Structure formats: structure tokens, C-alpha cells
Amino acid sequence: MGSATAHRKNVIVLGAGVVGLTTALKIQEQRGYNVSLLADVLPSDEKSTKYTSHWAGAHHVLNVTEDARQQKMDLETFKVMWELSAPGTETEQYFKRIVQTEYYTNTKLLPPLDRMPNYKVLAPETLPTGIVHGSSFSTLTIDTPKYLAYLAARLVSAGGQLVRGSVQHIDQVLEGGAGIFTPNRTPARPDAVVVCTGLGTRFLGGIEDKDMHPIRGQTVLVRAPWIDFGRTIGAENSWTYVIARHSGDVILGGTRSVDDWYPLPRPETTRDILERTFAMCPELAPPEVRAQRKPTIEDVLPLVIEEGCGFRPARTGGIRLDVEWRGAGKGAKKVPVVFNYGHGGYGFQSSWGSANIALKLLEEAMAGKF
Ligand SMILES: Cc1cc2nc3c(=O)[nH]c(=O)nc-3n(C[C@H](O)[C@H](O)[C@H](O)COP(=O)(O)OP(=O)(O)OC[C@H]3O[C@@H](n4cnc5c(N)ncnc54)[C@H](O)[C@@H]3O)c2cc1C
């Protein structure tokens, strides 16, 4: 081991969703750290409700109305993703720059979208029936499974490591580090731990944050490469959206059911999503069909690739971003434990901003500022 490596601080990041991956990357790419990312589900695994990040649409829309910290995180993330999505870059394939149209059935639901690039309020006479406000702006969508794989690869090429392990209690990693889960078992106390375990934080021993709860979201993935825009209707009790990805696949949604733990897509909800999205966006039917006759929902059914659902890791009180000092084992030195979890429905669009805060908290703690 070279002396530069030997002097680095060993940091364990727990959780390999978009929040853990981005936070681990941010720390690893900062000089002076060796990051081990430890998680029981990794981005290359099959999709399940134990890992929300696979299920996100995802688009970036500044839809948080009152939380200034969240707005700042979202804006910082937008800036990073806008650069990553620039035409001609190697990373543009994980994103699609689009024109997004947002319709609302009630002006009370309106978020501060006017900060999005090319924001325009749509003329009232152009709005569909039942819509009282419409706007359009430029934004980007994220091909989430591919983007997560990219983050993991970038972490490894920056010198970080990915370790699989199911942590029962935070003390396990405070005493043994990620080494307790590696094949040759090399326990070592880390210099710091960062907790990005999403909904799992509700069950992680020593933390067990009961403010964490799921907001279940069901989606349908279709193959419709002719769709090159995003469209949403925000209503009091439902959000209907179409999110086009770079690959030509399109995510249709959505649902928001609080404290709903059912882990499989419900067939009647899939049908409801298809009906709502087709009513909002008849362009989902293939162009050759639309050229000949009025399309029906039957024209969209053969395009379905996947139905799925994920649990948005929501936290009463918002995202937890703070530090505690903890030690495990008799007489153990306390080390900083940084928390970054509870991103609800905005984990992608706040990922870089919240990772910036987590890194700052870590650096200040390591420098003995608190
Ligand atoms: C249908 C749907 C649509 C969405 N659309 C958008 C969108 O358009 N834009 C947007 O920004 N967001 C969107 N989201 C929200 C976004 O998906 C989440 O906010 C984000 O994925 C949360 O990431 P995370 O890293 O916190 O959690 P997760 O992705 O769930 O990752 C948690 C990680 O922690 C690990 N872990 C947990 N407990 C333990 C333990 N005890 N031991 C070891 N490892 C553990 C897990 O294995 C996993 O690796 C959407 C979500 C859904 C469901």
C-alpha cells in the first residue's frame, strides 16, 4: 500500500441506491478517502421493493414548494445532470433532454416551476378540458437502471469498492467495517460511516427510524421510441405522467399510496395507469396506427414491457442530514456517523445536492468542528 493510500480515511457508505452511490462517489472523488459501499441489494441485482432506485421514472422537475433546503439540493443536482446529459458526452446516453408539459387541475397544486429553463405558461385556450393551468419547460429524464450502473462503475474506477452485506445493527460496521462481509474476513474499524439505507433505515438496528414509511408507486414501462417529450397532469388525488427515456422506453405512471407495503404490481392499477396515460397522451399509440384511424387503448397494450412498483422512502420531517458520534465495543473511540436518507419521491433529483451536504458534514466532523 502506497503512503498516499495509507493516510486515507476509511469510510463505509451503507446503501447502494442512488443516494448511497452518489454520496459514495462524491466522497471517493474527494482526496483523502477510501470508500467501501456496503449494501444488501446492489444495482446489478434483480428489481425488488428492497431497492427503490430501480423503479424511478425518473424526471427532474422542481416540484417542491416550501422546503428551501430541498429546492437548493434539486437545483444543484439539475446543474450536474444537465452537464452529464450534454450532447456529445459519454454520459448523455443515461439521460434524455426533453420538453416537459405540466397540467394542473387546481392552481393550489402549482410548484415553483418558473426556475426551469425555457419556462412558458401555456395559453388558456390551448389547455385540455378540466385543466386550469399549464406550462412547459426544458428538463431531462434519467434512464435509472443504466444510470445506477454508471454510478457504480464510476465509483469503482475512482478506487472505491462495492461489498454485499446485510447489516443487522450499525454496531456491526462500527466495530468490523465492510471487512466482516468480504470473503477473507478482514475486520477493521472505519473512520466514519455514512447511512444511506432509504426505507431500510426503519429496520436498521441502532437507528430504527420510525418516521420512515413507504409511499408506494406503481408504473408501466412501454416501448414507444416516437415519444420524445414528458407530460404530467397533477390533480388532487392522482398524478398521471409519461416519461420518455433515451433508450426509447417510456415510463407511465403513477400512483402514490402512503403506508402501502404490497410488493407486487396490482393488475387493476396497471389498467388504470394505461387508461389515464392514454387519455392524456394518445400519441402513445404507434404513429402508423394514428395515421390510419383513431387509436384505442388496445393499440398500446402490445407495447407493454414491464409492470412494477417501488416504495418511495419517505420520512416525516423530510430528509435526514446530520451527524452523530458513535462507537461500538468496550472503550471504542467514537467516529462520525453521517445520515443521508428519507428522499421520498425526489431521490434522483436531489441526489447530488444531498451528497454535497453529506460530504460537508463528514469533512467538518473529521476536522473536529463538531
Ligand atoms: C414509481 C416511482 C417513481 C419515482 N420517480 C422519481 C422521479 O421522477 N424523480 C426522482 O428524483 N425520484 C423519483 N422516485 C423516488 C426515488 O426512486 C427515490 O427517492 C430513490 O430511489 C431513493 O434512493 P435511496 O438510495 O434512498 O434508496 P434505495 O434505492 O431503496 O436504496 C437503499 C439501499 O440501502 C440498502 N440497505 C437498506 N437497509 C440495509 C441494511 N440493513 N443493510 C445493508 N444494506 C441496506 C439497500 O440494499 C439499497 O442498496 C420515484 C420512485 C418511485 C417508486
TrEMBL record:
One Pfam family recorded for the sequence: DAO
Record keywords, A-Z: FAD, Flavoprotein, Oxidoreductase
InterPro entries in the cross-refs: DAO, FAD-dep_OxRdtase
Span of domain FAD dependent oxidoreductase: 11-358
Assigned GO CC terms: cytoplasm
Residues that bind D-dopa: 312, 345
GO MF annotations, alphabetized: D-amino-acid oxidase activity; FAD binding
Binding positions (FAD): 52-53, 167, 197
Cofactor(s) named in the record: FAD
GO biological process terms on file: D-amino acid catabolic process
Protein family (similarity comment): Belongs to the DAMOX/DASOX family.
Entries under PANTHER family matching the protein: D-AMINO ACID OXIDASE (PTHR11530), D-ASPARTATE OXIDASE (PTHR11530:SF11)
Name of the featured protein: FAD dependent oxidoreductase domain-containing protein
